[in-house]
Q: What sequence folds into this?
């Protein structure tokens, strides 16, 4: 078995199942949605173990550290062993997912605290609905 020391980033992203096709991975890299160690890159750039990769896909952002290299796409369980996601990335994705869920439900987090008048109106609304 040959031990790999570097793999093209587009092949690795495809093997790690971040993109369905290599051409989709290549397009994302060219559009600046994939960064290696915080720098834009080209599809032919080699990725190595312990490098940090930032991936933006649709509305999700991932920050991962490469743990293994592979040029071949395998089952999802094998693909998940190729990288480890940082805790900061997991927390940020969960926060963003919760925010989108609230917005779909019609709730929006206000940008500022309510004014005195708005607080009075809220208080009046709460107490009138409880009294009825």
A:
């Amino acid at each position: 078995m040959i031990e790999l020391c570097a793999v093209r980033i587009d092949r690795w992203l495809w093997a790690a199942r971040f993109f369905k096709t290599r051409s989709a991975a290549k397009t994302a890299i060219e559009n600046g949605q994939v960064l290696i160690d915080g720098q834009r890159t080209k599809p032919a750039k080699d990725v190595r173990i312990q490098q940090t990769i930032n991936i933006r896909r649709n509305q999700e952002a991932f920050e991962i550290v490469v743990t293994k290299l592979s040029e071949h796409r395998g089952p999802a369980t094998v693909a998940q062993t190729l990288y480890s996601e940082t805790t900061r990335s997991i927390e940020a994705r969960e926060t963003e997912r919760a925010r989108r869920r609230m917005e779909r439900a019609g709730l929006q987090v206000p940008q500022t605290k309510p004014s005195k008048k708005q607080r009075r109106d809220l208080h009046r609304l709460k107490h009138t609905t409880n009294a009825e």
